[in-house]
Write a structure and sequence with these properties.
Blueprint lengths: L1 E3 L9 H9 L4 E4 L3 H10 L6 H7 L4 H11 L24 H19 L6 E6 L6 H10 L4 E5 L6 H9 L4 E4 L2 E2 L8 E4 L16 E6 L2 H10 L7 E4 L32 H5 L5 E4 L5 H9 L4 E4 L1 H4 L8 H12 L5 E4 L9 E4 L8 H6 L11 E4 L5 E4 L5 H6 L4 H4 L5 H8 L5 E2 L2 E2 L26 H8 L7
Parallel strand pairs: 1-11, 2-3, 3-4, 4-8, 6-14, 8-9, 9-10, 10-11
Antiparallel strand pairs: 5-7, 12-13, 14-15, 16-17
Helix pairs in contact: 1-5, 2-5, 3-5, 4-5, 5-6, 6-7
Length: 472
Amino acid sequence: MIIQGGMGVGISNWTLANAVSRLGQLGVVSGTVLDVMLARRLQDGDEGGHMRRALSAFPFQAMAQRVLARHFVEGGRPAGAPYKALPMYSRTGSARELVELCIAGNFAEVFLAREGHDGPVGINYLEKIQLPILPSIYGAMLAGVAVVIMGAGIPIRIPGVLDAFARQAAAEYPLTVTGSLPGEDTQMRFTPADWSEGAVPELQRPAFLPIVSSNSLAHTFTRKANGRIDGFIVEAPTAGGHNAPPRGNPPLSAAGMPVYGERDRVDLVKLRELGLPFWLAGSRGTAEGLREALALGAAGIQVGTAFAYCNESGLEPHAREQVLRLAAAGQARVFTDPVASPTGFPFKVVQLEGSLSTEVEYLARTRVCDLGYLRESYRQEDGSIGYRCASEPISHYVAKGGTEQGAQGRKCLCNALMADVGLPQIRKGIVEKTLVTSGDDVADIARFLSPGALSYSAADVIARLLGTGISG
């Protein structure tokens, strides 16, 4: 009945997903930037040996050893030293070492989330992050992922990818290229045989649950997807992270936030007519929210924010304590920023001193794009594909055909979200700042705290949602 949200970069980490699945619900890991996550954990010395334990179970041991040789630092990198720079993805020319890191990173996160119990584990991807999607899914399937969840776009071609990989066959996925002309090849391709080394385990086809925010999008999936859809996550605009833009492009509120109305509400009566299970997401993280969802015909709820601040999440402890203190004092606030994300999607930001949510910290940061996961692919004059990011230096963005106005206010989510989980890049002694995202429900997370406490567990969340109180 409860699907744990697949939040951010490493917030929904393997530790959290493992805990939730052990408790009989669906634990979900974030599939975003798991290559960088693996590399930086290894460069920090792999505390607890978890990454190395996962890699020891990886089916392609020669690849695992190459990953370790490139990134593992015994005892961790020196204090103040930057993390090793990684190459960036492209449609056809991604470095082999990067793709291997991607496959291994997705495998490791799912493997560790599944370790020690028999419950299913899911993984959450953003359709907006397209370039690594094929090797990411393949790595997760090698580890036995049970469910693939995807939002921030319209991933109607993912079912076919899952079907192909289950047969160990090649898969394609279309890359969205701004300005591409009819007939131009924008397909990305991944052939498992090009990456497998020795015997390959039998792969099970995971269930696919796309995230939708409208009835029309749900109908699009049932009519146009190139394979089986197993249900939907129905996300309200109060959910954290990226939100779908409001329909009709209404003017911003007096506070500068997108305004959502009746057109943005999903008609659950019509949704039930599709005959597929669905889970409601967005400010549903209460026992009452679960009961109401079940009464409306949902199979359950997806809960993110409540889990984001529990002990098992990957959120950096200082940031977690800051937000919990604000929530306990009734002062936690979220701003739905229409321009923070370079993707153009509204993005929810917790207002937090010392983070990039403040104007002074945002303006003090030197713009740089050195991870590149949210870059836009665009057609260059010679017909080749270029890559630009609205959060990169403005002069670079404009030189690539972007506009100065389109770059104003954009924040580097790639680097900020890595900082959120305690893995910030360091450049010339300057440490990247955090930018914490949460759903509107963050204002009420203090309900999970016992009197006098400033922490709670995933078990506490589930106990409250199921109406059994705080766990022992």
